[in-house]
Amino acid sequence: MLIKLLIELVIGGLCGYAANRLMKSKSDNILHNVILGLIGGLVGGLIGNLLGLGGGWLSGIVLSIGGACLVVWAYRKFLK
Q: Which one, of 25, 4, 6, lies nearest residue 71 by Cα?
């Protein structure tokens, strides 16, 4: 259980990092990247389930990065 949580945090951090690079964000904070990746994973998974996409780990990563990009966009648009 602990190993799975650590793996999810690492994947979330990588997805958040990828979203930061795609969105040309200025933040290099690792905690920020992990939070963005985890929230993006939730958003991407929700959108994937609504559209009937997903099922594999690769599609999960793509949806997580897309969701994290959406979260970065929304953060920039509405909170700043």
A: 25
